[in-house]
Every structure is written in structure tokens, then in C-alpha cells.
């Protein structure tokens, strides 16, 4: 059924934006778009993904039915045995919505969903700064915190698909208190809401987003600098944790906050004081397209395999 | 090197599959071997004849058929070759001997010679010789030796570094000396990795492929088994969780030197915190645990804090690698009272519920793991096919019943 001219559809669903693309069997992007994520929740977001495929097919001048291979990145853990999505606080109702079932209904059987940060790891491994690595991680810092793990050249998802759910790392205020009871403590320190909160608590001027804080930093705002110092320290502690556990070849920094040199450079400077061996880190080469390019590459790989089998 | 001719690889594969069938189905007849391996009867006869000549198999009786001819049953011969496992610990040295079929023949242990260094190596050689002699095994039949050791083996000098609890190993070619004394090359492997492999072969983690083994004793360490393989890391330093930034200020000198977590939960950390808390003099961390059980409130507090920090480390492991099973091991970690405390804290702390078991092999975990690797290497020496990456699956622990 698969033909040489078939394309694949890739999407990277985030808490605030949705990126989508049509790509060929080599993972090369033919058409691409980005939209704000529909804030009304899972069912609307699923429709939005399908609508993106139609728009992109139109742009690429193809019939949408030719996009048989579909890969969608989801900001949550996906249980490899059940396909169930969990740990997705940033999109309402996603945990109770059968994303895979919906997509299969629209696009046919060759549909897969994958954790978005795993796809970013795959993107950097196939096309970016982790090309020669066998054991690496993609540390994504943005709305939330997540980690994609590459072990022995393959994605490592863990037993329940929740390997790399470092939002739950037991560090931060609660974990160090006498009664550590809250999970997700690391994200409470480094997630975008935490950063904005910290900025406000320390008496910073009006800032609605982390981007505003970065802008304030450029203007020489001391509070912004101090808030980023604190955030960088928490991130550095997470990096030390990862390296103690896994001794990786490379930790790639990505996500809307992770790629910012203002943060990355701060972390890089702190690390030597926290760990006796050098820890290899690098900013994402593919930037905010890492997840989308990883999805396109994975979908393209599925397409190529089907061509070989045909 | 030019690739081996196809026929040779085919023969190697035949030998390998017959051996594997013998490993898992002994005693077994030629006809059943042919069925299990899907090899022709003629090929089977050739392989079995060759094995008999090599002393790898022996007949052990006949099938009890109803009518008609009965068939000879074969099993792997204990004379086929032996493997030796060693566990060099700060407190005890353990050695164990297995035959090629994975039957553990004998095991012996002694307190580690406190003078360390060459004395410890002599002690290992003496223990091994005695074990072989007692089992009427000529040392030349021991063809594969693996030793579990704390610290890190320097591949250039053969010395064991970062093992502060045994003196004099960091400037000795341990690998070279031991290989010479035992008359066969000795392979060294991290003790926690081997304890984990021990639990996977004979212990509480059988048939699993994502397992974390958290060991707490004189130090703290982690073994990770992921997708059916040990995680060693880029520099062999995976699982060095003593350096986790937990339990103190990671910027402190002690944290950088000894590791932030180890400085608190390692044996010296436990003893230090007990003294700092106003406790009287103790010789070892074990005494602190015993006093806690006997109702000493200062000791109880130290133990509780140790359990809390251990649980934090476990939570970091669970968040990062999402294991099927977390095994608590080591002289402290495997204590049921302590493990219970860790599990209780983890209930509140872990991002998701995870199954926790205490090591069932306890002190033997390291030596059993060393045996499992030594046995694999022995099998690969006989039946490894260079073109085939996978190693032979080890026989199940049922074979231990043959132990006298």
C-alpha cells in the first residue's frame, strides 16, 4: 500500500504551542506550521492536530490521505503496554483522552505517539549535536521539565514509559523539608511558573512570562539575574544527579528555557563546583524544532521500513 | 581477519544450540535434542560424539520407554570445565566454584586479611586452591575467573582505585598478580554490578530486565540493569550515587571528595552523625543500627535520617529510569528493619509506586554474580560465535539443587 511518493505527518504538541510538518521518507520537511495550542483541552487539541495535517497537505499540494505515517509527540508519559498517557498537567483532559485511537481513526494504522522529549532526543541523535552518541540525554526545560534518554543507541522509555520524568526528581523545597510529601518537586523549582513566581516574590517588576524575565535581564535587572542564578543552580543539581546515575556522553539542553544561553551558561559555570569530573553538556542544535524534526525522522523511518517490506 | 567460511559458522551454531539445549534440558536423549534444536539426527550425532570426546557430555542412563528400544540420556559433564567466582569485600573474601552446567559445587569465605594488598591476594589464591582441591578439581580445569571488587579497576595498571576500605590495592597490579597466582586470566568487575547480576540469576530479580540495585553498606552504590544490560556509563562511573547532591551542601569540600550522599549515609557518615548527635563511642555503623533496634533514641534518629536520604536517592532513580523492581542490598540496605523504613518514606516520596525487595542472596550476591559472569565467559569460550553478538542464556537456579 505504501508508495514512493507517500509523505509522513509529524506533530509536536506542547503546552502552549503545536508544531506540525509534512516530511518525506528521509525526514526532510516539505511543509511546516506552528499554532498556539487550543486551550480548551484534549478533544479540541486532537481536532487541531488533524486540521494541521489538512492545512499542510494543502500547502504541500497533496491529498491528506497520502500522509499515512504519523508521529505525534505528546508532553507526558506513555505506557508502552497500554498506550495510556499520563503526567500531562499542561493539557487539560489528555490523560482521559484516547489520543492514539483518535489519530488511528483519522489517519489509519501507521500512527504512533511518543513522549515529546524522547522525540527531541531522537532528533538530536539523528540530525543534531548527539549524532555520534550512544548514551545521551535531552534535558528539556520550558513549561515543565522532562528528559529523553538514549541508551545503547536506542530510546529508553522505562518500564511504564516514565523514565526521564524528572519533574518528579526529589529536589527542591519539599524534598528537603522534614516531611517530604509532594512529588514533582523539581518542576516546582524550575518550571516556567516557578520561575515567574520566584521573580515576583523577590520583588521583580511586572513579568507575566519567563520571556519577560529574560528581557528584564537584558536591561540589567538584578532580580532577574538572581532568579536565573537560583534556577540554574537547581538545574545544575539535576544534571549532577543524572551524571551520578548514568555517566552519560552528553546532556543536551533544550526547551524554550533550556536553550537560552543566559541559563545554559550559568549552569555550565556552576557544574565544576558541584562535581569533580567534567560533565559534557551542549545546547540543542535543533532548538525548538528538535521535537518536530525527531518526530518527522521517526515517521520517515517507519515509512522507509514499510517501503522496504513492500 | 577474513571472515570464517560459512560451513564453520554453521557448525559453531549447531554446537552452540546443542550445548544450550543440554544446559536447559539435561538429561536428554539424542532424539529429543534433535527435536529441541531442529537439527538433523546426523548432525546431532556428530556434535554429541565430538562433545563426548572433548569430555563435555556424558551418558547418565537410559530413557524408561514402554516397549521397544530405550535411548541413552546425556548431560553436561562436570569435567567439561569450571568457573570460579570471587568477591573481595572490605570485611570478607568469598570464593565459589561452579561446573560448566552452572551447578555451584562449593563456596568458602573468610574475614578479609586486614593487611590488605598482597596479603589479600595471597588469601584469595589460598582459598581458591583449597576449594578446588576439596572438590577434586585440578586448577587447570578452572578456565574462567571473575572477581567482584569495590572501587574502579584501572585498565592500564591493573590496580584497584577508589576502594578506601581495603588498603594497598591502589598501587598493585591486582589483575596481573591474581591471574598469575590462579593460573588463568582474572576479570574484575564492580561489586555492586555483580551483586545485581547475582540477584538476576539466582536471587529476587529473576526474569526481569529493568532493575535497580541500591546497595548500602560501608559505602553507597547503585547497579542498573536496563533493557537486559548492565549500565556502565561512559567512564564506567554509572551508579556512583555517593555523589548525588542529597543530604548536605554539595559545595562542601567533603561532598566533592567523598560524595555528598556518601558523606552522610556511608558507614563513617552514620557513625559520625551518631557521635555528633551525642551518642557514645561505637565501632561500626552496625552497632548504631543495633542500638536503634534496642531503643537508643539517638541511634534511632540517625537510622531514620539514613532511611530518609536513601529513599530520596531511590526516588531519583525511579524518576530517572522507571525500573520494574528496586532491590535494596548491602549489609545495611538489606536489613529488613531498615528496608521497611526506606519503603515507608518512598510511599510518600516516590513519583509512582514501585516494587521494592530486599536482596535474597544477601552477602552471597556478589560471589553469585561473579559466578554468573565467569560461567557466561566459559560458555562463550567454548560456544561463542563471533558473528553472533548475543550470549547464551544462563541455566535457571534449579541446578543449584545439585549442590552437596
The CATH architecture category of the largest domain in chain A equals 2-Layer Sandwich
Overall 3D geometry of chain B?
elongated
Number of domains of chain B: 3
- By CATH, the superfamily of the largest domain in chain B comes out as ATPase, nucleotide binding domain
Q: What separation lies between the terminal Cα atoms of chain A?
A: 8 Å
Q: What about the largest sheet of chain B?
A: 5 strands, mixed
Whole-number radius of gyration of chain B? 24 Å
- Give me the CATH architecture of the largest domain in chain B, please: 2-Layer Sandwich
Mean pLDDT figure of chain A: 89
The helix content of chain A, as a percent range, equals 40-55%
The first-to-last residue Cα distance of chain B is: 46 Å
Largest interface, counted by CB within 8 Å of the partner chain's CB: A-B, 44 and 44 residues
Low-confidence stretches of chain A: 174-183
Please state the structural category of chain B: alpha/beta
- The CATH topology of the largest domain in chain B is given as Nucleotidyltransferase, domain 5
**How many domains make up the coordinates of chain A?**
2
Task: Write down the overall geometry of chain A.
Answer: globular
Q: If you consult CATH, what is the topology of the largest domain in chain A?
A: Nucleotidyltransferase, domain 5
Assign the structural class of chain A, choosing from mainly alpha, mainly beta, alpha/beta, alpha+beta, or little secondary structure: alpha/beta
* Mean pLDDT across residues of chain B: 88
Amino acid at each position: 500500500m505504501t508508495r514512493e511518493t507517500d509523505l509522513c505527518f509529524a506533530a509536536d504538541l506542547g503546552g502552549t504551542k503545536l508544531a506540525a510538518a509534512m516530511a518525506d521518507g528521509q525526514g526532510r520537511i516539505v511543509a511546516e506550521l506552528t499554532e498556539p495550542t487550543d486551550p480548551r483541552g484534549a478533544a479540541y487539541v486532537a481536532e487541531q492536530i488533524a486540521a494541521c495535517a489538512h492545512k499542510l497537505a494543502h500547502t504541500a499540494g497533496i491529498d491528506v490521505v497520502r500522509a499515512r505515517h504519523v508521529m505525534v509527540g505528546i508532553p507526558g508519559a506513555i505506557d508502552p503496554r497500554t498506550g495510556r498517557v499520563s503526567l500531562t498537567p499542561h493539557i487539560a483532559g489528555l490523560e482521559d483522552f484516547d489520543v492514539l485511537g483518535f489519530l488511528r481513526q483519522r489517519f489509519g494504522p501507521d500512527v504512533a505517539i511518543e513522549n515529546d522529549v524522547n522525540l527531541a532526543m531522537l532528533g538530536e541523535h539523528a540530525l543534531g549535536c548527539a549524532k555520534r552518541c550512544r548514551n545521551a540525554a535531552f534535558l528539556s526545560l520550558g513549561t515543565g521539565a522532562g528528559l529523553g534518554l538514549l541508551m545503547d543507541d536506542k530510546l529508553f522509555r522505562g518500564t511504564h514509559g516514565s523514565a526521564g520524568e524528572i519533574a518528579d526528581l526529589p529536589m527542591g523545597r519539599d524534598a528537603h523539608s522534614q516531611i517530604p510529601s509532594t512529588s514533582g518537586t523539581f518542576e516546582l523549582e524550575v518550571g516556567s511558573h516557578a520561575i515567574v513566581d520566584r521573580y515576583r516574590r523577590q520583588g521583580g517588576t511586572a513579568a507575566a512570562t519567563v520571556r519577560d524575565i529574560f528581557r528584564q535581564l537584558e536591561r540589567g535587572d538584578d532580580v532577574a539575574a538572581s532568579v536565573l542564578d537560583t534556577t540554574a543552580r537547581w538545574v545544575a543539581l539535576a544534571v549532577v544527579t543524572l551524571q551520578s546515575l548514568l555517566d552519560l556522553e552528553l546532556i543536551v539542553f533544550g526547551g524554550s528555557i533550556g536553550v537560552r544561553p543566559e541559563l545554559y551558561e550559568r549552569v555550565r559555570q556552576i557544574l565544576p563546583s558541584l562535581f569533580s569530573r567534567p560533565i559534557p553538556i551542549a545546547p540543542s542544535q535543533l532548538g525548538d524544532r528538535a521535537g518536530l524534526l525527531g518526530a518527522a525522522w521517526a515517521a520517515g523511518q517507519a515509512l522507509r521500513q514499510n517501503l522496504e517490506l513492500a | 581477519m577474513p571472515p570464517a567460511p560459512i560451513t564453520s559458522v554453521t557448525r559453531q551454531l549447531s554446537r552452540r544450540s546443542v550445548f544450550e539445549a543440554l544446559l536447559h534440558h539435561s538429561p536428554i536423549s539424542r532424539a529429543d535434542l534433535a527435536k529441541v534444536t531442529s537439527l538433523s539426527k546426523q548432525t546431532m550425532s556428530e556434535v554429541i560424539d565430538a562433545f563426548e570426546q572433548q569430555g563435555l557430555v556424558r551418558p547418565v542412563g537410559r530413557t524408561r520407554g514402554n516397549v521397544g528400544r530405550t535411548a541413552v540420556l546425556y548431560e553436561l559433564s562436570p569435567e567439561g570445565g569450571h568457573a570460579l567466582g570471587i568477591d573481595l569485600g572490605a570485611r570478607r573474601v568469598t570464593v565459589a566454584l561452579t561446573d560448566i552446567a552452572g551447578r555451584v559445587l562449593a563456596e568458602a569465605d573468610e574475614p578479609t586479611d586486614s593487611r590488605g594488598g598482597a596479603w589479600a591476594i595471597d588469601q584469595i589464591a589460598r582459598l581458591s586452591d583449597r576449594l578446588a582441591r576439596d572438590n577434586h578439581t585440578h586448577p587447570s580445569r578452572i578456565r574462567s575467573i571473575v572477581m567482584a571488587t569495590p572501587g574502579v579497576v584501572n585498565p592500564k595498571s591493573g590496580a584497584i582505585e577508589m576502594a578506601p576500605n581495603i588498603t594497598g590495592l591502589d598501587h598493585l597490579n591486582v589483575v596481573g598478580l591474581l591471574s598469575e597466582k590462579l593460573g588463568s586470566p582474572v576479570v574484575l568487575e564492580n561489586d555492586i554490578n555483580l551483586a545485581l547480576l547475582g540477584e538476576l540469576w539466582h536471587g529476587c530479580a529473576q526474569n526481569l530486565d529493568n532493575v535497580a540495585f541500591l546497595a548500602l553498606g560501608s559505602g553507597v552504590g547503585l547497579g542498573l540493569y536496563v533493557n537486559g544490560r548492565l549500565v556502565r556509563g561512559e567512564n564506567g562511573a554509572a551508579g556512583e550515587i555517593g555523589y548525588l547532591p542529597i543530604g548536605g551542601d554539595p559545595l562542601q569540600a567533603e561532598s566533592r571528595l567523598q560524595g555528598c550522599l556518601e558523606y552522610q549515609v556511608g558507614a563513617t557518615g552514620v557513625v559520625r552523625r551518631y557521635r555528633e548527635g551525642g551518642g557514645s563511642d561505637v565501632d561500626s555503623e552496625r552497632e548504631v543500627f543495633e542500638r536503634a533496634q534496642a531503643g537508643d533514641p539517638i541511634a534511632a534518629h540517625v537510622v531514620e535520617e539514613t532511611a530518609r536520604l536513601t529513599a530520596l536517592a531511590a526516588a531519583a532513580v525511579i524518576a530517572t529510569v522507571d525500573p520494574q523492581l528496586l532491590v535494596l542490598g548491602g549489609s545495611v540496605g538489606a536489613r529488613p528493619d531498615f528496608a521497611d523504613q526506606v519503603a515507608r518514606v518512598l510511599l510518600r516520596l516516590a513519583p509512582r509506586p514501585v516494587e521494592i525487595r530486599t536482596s535474597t542472596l544477601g552477602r552471597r550476591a556478589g560471589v553469585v554474580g561473579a559466578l554468573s559472569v565467569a560461567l557466561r565467559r566459559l560458555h562463550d569460550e567454548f560456544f561463542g560465535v563471533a558473528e553472533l553478538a548475543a550470549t547464551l542464556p544462563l541455566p535457571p537456579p534449579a541446578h543449584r539443587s545439585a549442590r552437596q
